[in-house]
Amino acid sequence: DFGHSSELAFVVEPSDDIAVQEQPLILYCQVEGIQPITITWRKNGVMILDSENAFMLANGSLYVSRFQRVRGDGSSDEGEYDCMAQNHYGLVVSRKAKIQAATMSDFHIHPQNAVVEEGGVARFQCQIHGLPEPVILWHKNSMPVNTDNERYTLLPKGVLQITGLRAEDSGIFHCVATNIANVKFSREARLTVSGSHSTVYKDPMILVGPENLTLTVHQTAVLECIATGNPRPIVSWSRLDGRPIGVEGIQVLGTGNLMISDLTVQHSGIYVCAANKPGTRVRRTAQGSLVVQAPAEFVQHPQSISRPVGTTAIFTCVAQGEPPPQITWLRNGQILETSDHIKLKNNNSTLSIYGINQADEAIYQCLAENSAGSTQASARLTVLWADGLPSPPQGVRAETVSATTIQVSWEKPLQNTKEIIGYVLHIRKAADPVEMEYQEAVSKSTFQQLVTDLEPSTSYSFYIKAYTSRGASKASEVTVVSTLGEVPAMPSLFIKVINSTTVQATWEPSIKLGQHKGFKLYYRKVHLSQYTGPVLLASNVTAYNITHLDASVVYEVKLLAYNQHGDGNSTVRFVSLRETVERTVLNPPCDCMKDEQNNKTSTTGIIIGIHIGVTCIIFCILFLMFGYRGRLLMCKNVQEQLSTPQIPRSQRSATGLVLNGATRRDRDDRDLNGKQLDMNELERLFPASPSQEQQEKGVTSAHSPSALHDETQISTLPLDEFSIIEEQPDPLPKNPHGSSPAAPAPNHGPANEG
């Protein structure tokens, strides 16, 4: 079964009740489990002894012979009752049952006389308090009001509404309140219906709006709203949060009262009553809040478990309700006290017991309680213990090795060591809770363990358990030791040039620095041996300006972090102030504006160069496709736009320049000819026909598809690598200017052109 242990559990628990003065009262309690079981009762936490007035029945229920709210000695039978059951497995306590005496007060609101014109609305109200809630009925002229008349609306809280008044509605009204404690009558009030129905226009007006209500789930809520006006206003309801009210369980009483049956928590909210003039936007509103509470109930019950000695036991108990319930844990009926090995987490929803022993064996109860009610669930912890287990390991010692390492050693147990299969070392920061503990397993023949990856200057606790196949020994004595301290790590250092005499040193805070007191900053001219500094800076400082520097030399800047254990390793940077722009040698800062301008300039030059280069390539391809021979026009503008470095004239050969494995003709022929080439000169330079050129060149495959494909590939080389070979099958005579003709070039196939 969920929510209780099979060894001992409640079948029936006492419930809240309202008792009648001088009448008997029975509180029920039924328990199942392993006999013998002892049942006792408490009132307000005090044990109830059998007496003539109150005693326990054979089935475990409590019988109160004459319930009295106040006895002669000043005591009262009112209070919170609970039932306790105990056997040799443990003890459980039932939920608390709240017992109250039935009462009824005097009327504190009586109906008042009213004079209302015909066709109007009359409202009478009675109000009285009592336990249980009194039922209020209305009488007219000493006779019960006819509830079959749809113009008469009786609300549960003692309100009578009469709409569409007529002359026969006049009379004397009073109310009657009834509960198990008493019956009471209110004062009388007279209703007078005057005149005839008026046709004068009246704005809508809400006479009474909804009041704030706090109820429990499954109850019924009635939100009152009564409005007047001429013409008669239309009453409507909405939620302030905009959510729909819904239709299930919703009913309108009379002309505008909202009744919600079988309340749920989702019905909570602010409700708005609106009185609208028909056919217009003229309206009046009133609002009231509805709070629906839900008693505590369990979403997850604790489960009984069995665990070996020295392990961890965890119970989970999740409850819901409105308002959210508070969870309390009991151990054998007593409030559970937390300690180093007993922890409560997740708003008390999780109970963890670390390193359990036989004393922890008990029945644990989870009590969930809020203002709407309470509930309980129980589970049993069984601690498994085997005879012949080893005794605790002896002589546990811990020695500090470094800032992150501790060596733990121990001796084998004194008893029952033959079945030991290994040891487990339990490690925890001394300041951490028990649940932060972790373990390391060690072989049975090893009696020491080097614990690494610890934090510097931190205290740790250690204890050992010996394990067999049947369970673990009890824990050894706990030893506590601290690691050594260490100096901080190297900080990250960045240097930024501010101007010709100032640089800024910046660094980033990091958890890798560890605990440090501050920073030390040094700087010097690189050709000097003496540093300026240290400049002591607090641990929260991350920047420092070094001023009055000499712009003509290079500086060395050094930064380190320090603590009580000494100085850490330093980070060194070198910086030059020769230029006043923000630039450093080893770690240049990002000058985004400058980079952006450079990028724009470079991009513009590249685009212009591409346009010009593509134009020249197109011309060259056309010449190659038609098989022209001779000297081709070279575009000097391409060379100027792309700023291609010129090879010195001394490196040029008589037949051309060597570039990327190909020969290239001197590009300065245009200057030697002394005039600008145009299309007429192009025709003069290539007078031969294609067939004649082929014969002179001696190549028959120049215009084959593969050759054309090769020429196209060559033409798409980057512009700074593009070159054309001048082909001259026959030596040319000297030109008029006296320049010597170029030496004949070797006869290359089409694949080598370009």
Q: In summary, what is this structure?
A:
Helix content is 10%, strand content 41%.
How is the secondary structure organized here?
Layout: E1 8-12, E2 17-19, E3 25-27, E4 30-33, E5 38-43, E6 46-47, E7 54-56, E8 62-64, E9 79-87, E10 90-93, E11 97-101, E12 103-104, E13 114-117, E14 122-125, E15 130-131, E16 135-140, E17 143-144, E18 152-155, E19 159-162, E20 171-178, E21 183-185, E22 189-194, E23 202-208, E24 213-216, E25 221-223, E26 226-230, E27 234-239, E28 250-253, E29 257-260, E30 269-276, E31 283-300, E32 305-308, E33 313-316, E34 318-322, E35 326-331, E36 334-335, E37 342-345, E38 350-353, E39 362-370, E40 373-384, E41 394-400, E42 406-411, E43 422-429, E44 438-443, E45 448-451, E46 459-468, E47 471-472, E48 479-482, E49 492-499, E50 502-508, E51 518-525, E52 532-538, E53 543-546, E54 554-563, E55 566-567, E56 571-576, H1 592-625, H2 636-642, E57 657-659, E58 662-664, H3 669-673, H4 679-685, H5 690-697, H6 705-715
Parallel strand pairs: 2-11, 13-22, 24-31, 32-40
Antiparallel strand pairs: 1-4, 3-8, 5-6, 5-9, 7-8, 9-10, 9-11, 12-15, 14-19, 16-17, 16-20, 18-19, 20-21, 20-22, 23-26, 25-29, 27-30, 28-29, 30-31, 31-34, 33-38, 35-36, 35-39, 37-38, 39-40, 41-42, 42-45, 43-44, 43-46, 46-47, 46-48, 49-50, 50-53, 51-52, 51-54, 54-55, 54-56, 57-58
Helix pairs in contact: 1-2, 1-6
